[in-house]
Amino acid sequence: MLLLGTFYIQHKKNLAYKLTKMIRNILFILCFTTLISCSKDEDLVVPGSVNPEATANVPVQDFMWKAMNFWYFWQQDVPKLADDAFLNTEEGVLEYTNFLMSKEDPADFFRNALQFSEDNFSFFEEDYTQLIQSLSGVSRSNGVEFALMTFNNSNEIYGVVRYILPNSDAASKDIKRGDIFTGVNGQTLTASNFRSLLFGADATYTLNMAVFEEGAIAETSKTVTLTKETAFAENPVFLTKILEVADQKIGYLVYNQFVRDYDDALYKAISELRDGGITDLVVDLRYNLGGSVNSTRLLASMIYGTDGDDLFLKKRYNSKIQAQLEKDQLEIYFTDKVGSTTINSLELKKVYVLTTSASASASELLINCLDPYMNVIHIGDVTTGKNEFSTTMVDDRENTYLYSPSRINKIKEGNKWAIQPLIGRNENSVGFSDYTGGITPDIILREDIANLGVLGATDEPLLARAIQEITGVITNKRKRSVPKPFNTVYSSKMNNLLKDNMVDDTNY
Known about the structure:
By secondary structure, the chain is an alpha+beta fold. It has 3 domains: 2-117, no CATH class; 139-231, Roll (Pdz3 Domain), CATH 2.30.42.10; 237-387 and 429-478, 2-enoyl-CoA Hydratase, Chain A, domain 1 (Alpha-Beta Complex). It contains 13 helices and 25 strands. The strands form 7 sheets. Strands 3, 4, 5, 6, 7, 8 and 24 form a 7-stranded antiparallel sheet that branches. Strands 10-11-12-18-19-23 form a 6-stranded mixed sheet, with helices on both faces.
């Protein structure tokens, strides 16, 4: 039944239909369980059929291999993950044991023995509770979200503040969007030290501030001391606002991560815009690295519509799993519910989306999956280009290694490791998913570090461009500076465990 919870899609309203599908899926689970536990050829390995020698102390590597062998999107591209990589014989068990023992460090084993060379997004965590926290929007933070950049091909790195989180330590300090810093505790930031200085164990540090003047970065005497909160919960619904320009009401939503725990807050924000009588909507995903696929579907339903017969996306797994699933187990539809609350959709025909190169995974999914149904006016920079989804896996063999909060006591004792591998790719309703190079905007407009503006202000450059498209009114008359030769190398959000992962949670 737990596997049923993974694949069963409740998008039909007819109860008899649901019961019929449930029975079919139960039969599917029985077939799937048979696939897991036995094989027509006893010499071939299938998930869970070969165990390392009893004396070998490799429980983490064993869990990683079995989970990756079964679920990994590129399973067929990694020779040692093949179903017939190890024979179910005495010699095969020895070979499997030696393979698991080849890397003493499980992290090294995952990266160098299991991960496909073209996969830059799968990852692991020694303690699954830390990963679950990040999936819920909880992280160690002082409230400053920033980008780290190089300038004029220098080895030195400087930080640009993107926004300040409400109710954080930084919210009470003299620091704001657009501020620049070049050092920490008096040390100049470089490519070799920024991780330890900004993301190290110290809870408190002091930023050395700077300004951008006449095409150059100039250090100042100003400093800002900040303290990180161990478990800071960020509400990703950062800003909701109604802008009245030329007798038109434009809804503006800054949404910084697709987090399932904040779906109600997201719907409340959309409802406020709808009740305010907006005729147009600008969704700002500039700093949204991704997250929950289900939250993406919910936002799409709030914007476009709630017809459960409209296909939102199609999942594509590795060939082994794909062959076992039926059409209704691979398709996700628009929905009319946020939990038990009925969605009153905006039912728009057009939406404006703002992005940067940091907009990734679920942010790109929203654009791609709305595109067949409505006019998506995309403004900003080319997005990251991440179209695979992942899920959290722990050492729970009976649940095919899928993490479930109701089965924490079923996780193998002594093994708290979790992996977050890419297990599939999402296609929109017409089968398109080819945007690994990023999604190119209709209107290309990169952020200007010399003029970031205030989020929500009508003269903020990217929002102003959207307003111009909607109303024809130019609300930012400031002459745009010549683009500066900067290159983003990292950001505070990339230090979060979830980073730019897209999490498949549509059926949980």
